[in-house]
TrEMBL record:
It comes from Pedobacter cryoconitis. The chain crosses the membrane at residues 198-220, 227-252, 264-285, 292-312, 318-338, 345-365, 377-397. The lineage of its organism: Bacteria, Pseudomonadati, Bacteroidota, Sphingobacteriia, Sphingobacteriales. This is 7TMR-DISM extracellular protein 2. Keywords: Coiled coil, Membrane, Transmembrane, Transmembrane helix. The keyword Transmembrane helix applies.
Length: 629
């Protein structure tokens, strides 16, 4: 019996088809498998993009790394189809994973660097190759001092001591839309790049400060509000850029993470408002375009209301597209006024054109447009455009100053012409007025001569009256003094003539040296003022003689004006007044009054004959001590 023979051609065909299906299956799987980035010393800088990153959106915000490592969750990771992944829903947390093929033989040190400094919560989970992970947390919600590298970006130093392929996980949660920019770098390349980047920052913020100081000085010089608004606008833009770049968090408020939540929104609001205020003032919008003036005022009000709402809902700060409205309103206003042939608006429009371009690039990056290349130029495009805008607006301010000077020159020419016309009219009027003035002058001179004669007579009468008043005043003083010295008056009335120590010393000086001064030591007749009032000091020997020396009042313990009054009472009563009476009048102890009264009565008795013809001033004869004269 013959056995059936199989067809060898069909068997080979089936095998070939099976191999092809297996190859296609492996090819498809490999094409969809996540790409692994190797550590390569020849490539010192590599940015993860597209299929090199896989992502998972956690809308519950509760998944932990343990949950993420579960197979059921691992299968939910999606391949990134954008150049740079973003957190499109700010209410969700996003997980990212990428793989690195380490190279133990590498001669360089490697780091992972993560951009977008506005991320609130950033978590990096680093594998150790044994199934365990080490967590590192950073972000704007944590104090800056907690970072291992004091840099505006998030830096992690790789442990490259094996040849293993390790999977890294990143968790990002932010209240604003952020980009997950992940870079593998050689640390030497990073240092060079960081130094250049901070140098550019220094130049950029230095220009902002220089332009701001210049316009601030111009404001103080000319007191025009446009310069102040432009200074505030520049500073607001500078603070916004610092907040975006993480420079503000690093240097301005490193220990106040809350400032990162409001810094960007607050500075954007200020830049929009001050830009519109500058536009109103610089372009004379109120007079040149009243309707646009009202529109700008309403935009400022609505933008302010939106900012107040954002303070209560921080997620609204992520709607940065709102800033496009004030920008386009200012830009359109400049174009409209430029059409009305206001030359300074030309530089204003060109400067805002750069700013609009920079803003559109930022919008395209925000929308993750696939054909938009990512790099330093696009990332810092708004900063570059702001520099051009700042320079061109400064030119616009200068052009406005030149326009004002030109207008001022034309006004001055018109004024000079008008002054010349006025000068000719003035000459004509002066000739006419000169005749009238001459006539009037003659009349005034005539009246003046009459008034002058009357003034002379009045002056003579005033002189005579003044002389009479002086004589009358002297007579009154003499009468009062004579009455006081002749009558029994009380101490209050006596004090009107000798009210104080100064008056008494003056009288004693006139009485003592009535016949001239002669030093008692050397008979020198020249003197200077002594230490006590009205005392005299010899210019030759220096002897200082007080005014009460060698008088009845020498070594007196009671006030000089009361001693005067006591002497007057003893003299006027011819020594018959008692010490008790003197004590009651002068409010001095009776024993003191008795001693002085006895001394004065003794002198009175000794000079009794001399005093009979002395008249009403005889009491002064008792003043000088005859034993020392």
């Amino acid at each position: 019996m013959n056995k059936p023979v199989s067809n060898p051609s069909k068997g080979h065909l089936v095998k070939i088809l099976m191999v092809m299906c297996l190859f296609l299956t492996l090819t498809i799987e490999l094409s969809h498998a996540q790409k692994i980035i190797p550590v390569n010393d020849k490539v010192p800088h590599y940015i993860f993009s597209y299929g090199e990153i896989e992502y998972l959106e956690d809308s519950t915000n509760v998944l932990t790394l343990s949950d993420i490592l579960k197979p059921a969750v691992q299968s939910k990771f999606l391949i990134n189809k954008k150049y740079t992944p973003k957190n499109y829903h700010v209410t969700s947390a996003y997980w990212y994973r990428f793989k690195i093929k380490h190279a133990k033989a590498s001669a360089k040190n490697w780091i992972l660097e993560f951009f977008d400094q506005s991320i609130n919560h950033f978590g990096l989970f680093v594998p150790d190759g044994k199934g365990h992970y080490q967590a590192y947390y950073s972000g704007t919600a944590y104090p800056f001092s907690q970072r291992e590298y004091q840099h505006k970006n998030f830096i992690y130093e790789l442990n490259n001591d094996s040849n293993a392929t390790l999977t890294y996980y990143v968790r990002i949660k932010s209240s604003q839309s952020v980009s997950a920019i992940m870079v593998l770098r050689d640390i030497r390349w990073f240092v060079k790049y960081a130094l250049n980047e901070y140098l550019i920052f220094g130049l950029f913020y230095g220009m902002v400060i220089v332009f701001s100081l210049y316009n601030l000085l111009m404001f103080f010089a000319v007191r025009q509000m446009q310069y102040l608004y432009y200074v505030l606008y520049n500073l607001s833009i500078g603070l916004y850029e610092m907040s975006i770049d993480g420079i503000a968090f690093q240097y301005l408020w490193p220990d106040w993470p809350l400032g990162n939540e409001y810094g960007i929104g607050f500075t954007l609001y200020l830049s929009s408002v001050f830009a519109l205020m500058f536009t109103l003032n610089f372009l004379y919008v109120k007079t040149k375009a009243p309707r646009l003036y009202q529109l700008i005022i309403w935009v400022i009000i609505l933008r302010s209301l939106f900012f107040i709402v954002c303070l209560f809902n921080k997620h609204l700060f992520s709607y940065k597209l709102v800033e496009l409205i004030p920008l386009l309103v200012a830009y359109g206003t400049g174009i409209y006024i430029l059409k009305n042939r206001y030359r300074p608006a030309m530089f204003f429009v060109i400067g805002y054109t750069f700013l609009v371009i920079g803003f559109l690039i930022k919008i395209l990056l925000l929308l993750n447009v696939p054909w938009m290349p990512y790099g330093p130029f696009t990332y810092y495009s708004l900063s570059f455009c702001f520099i051009f805008e700042m320079i061109l607006v400064s030119f616009a301010i200068g052009e406005r100053v030149r326009t004002l000077r030109k207008n001022e020159s034309e006004v001055q020419k018109k004024m000079i012409h008008q002054l010349q016309v006025n000068e000719s009219l003035k000459d004509t009027l002066n000739k006419e007025l000169s005749t009238l003035v001459d006539q009037r002058t003659q009349e005034v001179r005539l009246k003046a001569s009459i008034i002058e004669k009357q003034n002379e007579e009045i002056s003579l009468m005033n002189t005579m009256l003044e002389k009479d008043n002086q004589e009358l005043h002297l007579n009154i003083e003499k009468v009062n003094k004579a009455r006081v010295m002749s009558d029994h008056v009380d101490f209050a009335e006596f004090s009107k003539i000798y009210p104080d120590r100064e008056t008494c010393f003056k009288y004693l000086s006139e009485l003592k040296w009535a016949n001239g001064y002669a030093c008692r030591k050397c008979t020198n007749t020249f003197y200077l003022a002594g230490f006590l009032p009205y005392s005299r000091r010899c210019t030759k020997c220096g002897y200082d003689e007080s005014v009460i020396s060698y008088t009845i009042f020498q070594n007196s313990k009671i006030p000089i004006n009361k001693a005067f009054y006591m002497l007057f009472l003893v003299y006027s009563t011819k020594g018959k007044i008692s010490s008790h009476k003197l004590s009651g009048l002068l409010l001095i102890r009776q024993s003191t009054c008795w001693a002085y009264n006895s001394k004065m009565q003794k002198i009175l008795e000794e000079r009794k004959k001399e005093l009979k013809t002395s008249g009403e001033g005889g009491w002064s004869k008792l003043v000088l001590d005859s034993n020392h004269t």
